[in-house]
Amino acid sequence: MPSLLTISSLIVSFIVTLLITPYWIKRAKTHGLVGQDMHKPGSKIAELGGLAVICGFLAGLLYYIAIDVFVYGNASYSKYILAGICSVLIATIIGLTDDILGWKIGLRQYQKVILTAAIVFPMMVINSGHSVITIPFLGRYDIGLLYPLILLPIGIIGASNAFNMIAGYNGLEAGLGIIILSTLGYLSWANHMGWVAVMAFCMVAALLAFLIFNMYPASVFPGDTMTYSVGTLIAIIAILGNIEKFALVLFIPYFIELALKARGRMQKESFAKVMSEGTLAKPYKQYYGIEHIAIDLAAKIKGRAYEYDVVLAIWGFELFLAAIILLNMRYFVF
């Protein structure tokens, strides 16, 4: 069972985000930090809402560390948690820079990948993760320094950029983050790594509070400030919890998105075409994003597709993958 410290840490994350988000919405609108909702012509929505999420996440996690160290005298995992926090904060800074300057400078996708390389260093310098990997049909192998020098950077850079790909619909990113991190958090707890689970669930609590304001119709956007940070944390949880294989399964929608984006030479947008009655339609004849598949699926089932239908369809796919993992986890070796 989760301890009182764990539960109180999640409550701190939730409440801090819940209090900061509406304040930020007012401040953002006052100072012109607003953006166009692409599926609601004419509406201006507060940007950079991811800052509130990160504040809540940090508040809960630092509270957890403080009580664990000063009250219980346990500092055994603090190094790893603080390194994870450093990586998330670097991701936040990069995302914030992209949100504020990216559209002016016109950053290309490969430039964003290069920028996110800095996220890796805190986790590399403490040699985090497990260098013993299991290769199907071949057994377990210790790959030594290849893990922190090659696999770890690929995982963190890949996850931080990939999580930023499926976005642009009210509540979509926050919901996906909740599903993925909840699954990885539970797996970490089942793997007797409660401190890793706390890291995951502090972000889940912050995302749940944020989703109240980000759900359709959204009053705030998360921005790259949140997506880079959540993607980074997903990779960190997978690495510290030694559950990378499960994270790969949960990232199947992002592999599909990458393949569809590559089909359009990374030039096609995932946004939908807004019809006169407020419904959504595919902007192209072919699929160039998993969002376009969701639009067609909703239209075939309901006769028309709204923005929340697209979000629910993608959430449903992610929940399906999570259910497969949780129902069959006894067949996997941690």
Keywords:
mainly alpha; 334 residues; globular; two-stranded antiparallel ribbon
Characterize the structure shown:
The chain has one domain (4-245). It has helices spanning 4-30, 50-70, 78-105, 109-115, 121-125, 146-162, 172-190, 194-214, 223-240, 244-250, 252-263, 290-302, 307-328; strands spanning 34-36, 44-46, 132-135, 139-142, 273-274, 280-281. Helices cover 65% and strands 5% of the residues. It starts with a helix and ends in a 6-residue tail after the last helix. The radius of gyration is 20 Å and the shape is globular. It has a two-stranded antiparallel sheet. Strands 3-4 form a two-stranded antiparallel ribbon. It is built from 13 helices and six strands. β3 and β4 form a beta hairpin. The longest helix has 28 residues, at 78-105. α8 (194-214) runs antiparallel to α9. It is mainly alpha-helical and 334 residues long.
Percentage of residues in DSSP E strands: 5-15%
The run of helices and strands is HEEHHHHEEHHHHHHEEHH
Low-confidence stretches: none
Q: What summary fits the major beta sheet? A: 2 strands, antiparallel
Q: Tally the structural domains.
A: 1
- Helix content range: 55-70%
Rounded mean pLDDT is 92
Give the overall shape, derived from the CA principal axes.
globular
Q: Give me the secondary-structure category.
A: mainly alpha
The rounded Rg comes to: 20 Å
Q: Please give the count of helices.
A: 13
In angstroms, what separates the terminal alpha carbons?
Answer: 20 Å
How many strands appear in the DSSP assignment? 6
Strand neighbour order, sheet with most strands = 1-2
